[in-house]
């Protein structure tokens, strides 16, 4: 008996759940858990179903597509996702992910880490994970990204995770990995975008700070949001205090976002997400 997760997006109409369930039954699949949502404005139907049984995934998808108009269907076996992590200099998010990977706290396997600085090599290799240094100096952004793509060809990965990778990706790179790049942003979007967010927050006297995990698109820091969180602060906190507190939020937000994605609970719908928690 294998367990699968089926994600379906299609035009809403009467009898969808019945027709879908009938096909699953015909293929010997037992429904373990089911979630549905209808966007009434768009008349769009979303369904996430966990099933168990012995079935041919291609056959199930083919039968579902014959029954559903203008649909998107994903069927995946419930197993760990493979990821490659991209980093620059900051260690807090990478360190958290390496520990979670070591103790299997998330449904993922870190295959490799790629950095545009050497700073995090020692940390990465302590966990017996390969680290590849690809410097960005004196070459174009496109040349740098081509070197990254060459390294990525060595790995069978599901997602790229930007764990404080502080470089703007080119449109071509983003297009090649559409829906597969997850970033952690250092503020509660859309406020304080750009450099020195904690200094901006300090100067504005904010009462909350936060972080946002999102899919990467060609609109800088405006991709579909997966998870956000905040903490309250007071006037007694300095900019350094905010930065330290912010790093804690970033770690938690990134981990929670990845948990949702790796458990196949996230649907990308245009520039927003539908999430079944």
From TrEMBL:
HAMAP family: PurU. Keywords: Hydrolase, One-carbon metabolism, Purine biosynthesis. It catalyses: (6R)-10-formyltetrahydrofolate + H2O = (6S)-5,6,7,8-tetrahydrofolate + formate + H(+). The gene is purU. It comes from the Bacteria. Its EC number is 3.5.1.10. InterPro entries: ACT-like_dom_sf (IPR045865), ACT_dom (IPR002912), Formyl_transf_N (IPR002376), Formyl_transf_N_sf (IPR036477), PurU (IPR004810), PurU_ACT (IPR044074). SUPFAM superfamilies: ACT-like (SSF55021), Formyltransferase (SSF53328). The keyword Hydrolase applies. This is Formyltetrahydrofolate deformylase. The active site is at residue 221. Catalyzes the hydrolysis of 10-formyltetrahydrofolate (formyl-FH4) to formate and tetrahydrofolate (FH4). Residues 5-78 form the ACT domain. CDD domains: ACT_F4HF-DF. Transmembrane segments: none annotated.
């Amino acid at each position: 008996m294998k367990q699968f997760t089926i994600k379906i997006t299609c035009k809403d109409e009467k009898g969808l759940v019945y027709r879908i369930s009938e096909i699953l039954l015909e293929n010997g699949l037992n429904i373990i858990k089911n979630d549905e949502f209808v966007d009434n404005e768009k008349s769009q139907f979303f369904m996430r179903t966990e099933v168990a049984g012995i079935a041919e995934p291609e056959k199930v998808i083919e039968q579902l597509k014959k029954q559903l108009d203008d649909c998107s269907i994903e069927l995946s076996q419930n197993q760990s996702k493979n990821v490659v992590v991209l980093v620059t200099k900051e260690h807090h998010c990478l360190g958290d992910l390496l520990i979670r990977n070591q103790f299997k706290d998330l449904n993922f396997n870190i295959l490799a880490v790629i950095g545009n600085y050497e700073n995090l090599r020692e940390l990465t290799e302590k966990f017996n994970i390969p680290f590849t240094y690809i410097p960005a100096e004196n070459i174009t952004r496109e040349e740098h990204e081509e070197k990254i793509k060459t390294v990525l060809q060595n790995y069978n990965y599901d997602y790229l995770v930007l764990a404080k990778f502080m470089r703007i990706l080119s449109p071509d790179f983003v297009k090649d990995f559409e829906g597969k790049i997850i970033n952690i942003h250092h503020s509660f979007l859309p406020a304080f975008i750009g450099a020195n967010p904690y200094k901006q927050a300090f100067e504005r006297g904010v009462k909350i700070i936060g972080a946002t995990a999102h899919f990467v698109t060609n609109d800088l820091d405006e991709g579909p949001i997966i998870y956000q969180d905040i903490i309250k602060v007071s006037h007694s906190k300095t900019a350094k205090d905010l930065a330290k507190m912010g790093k804690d939020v970033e770690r938690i937000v990134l981990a929670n976002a990845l948990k949702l994605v790796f458990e196949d609970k996230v649907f990308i719908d245009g520039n927003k997400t539908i999430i079944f928690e």
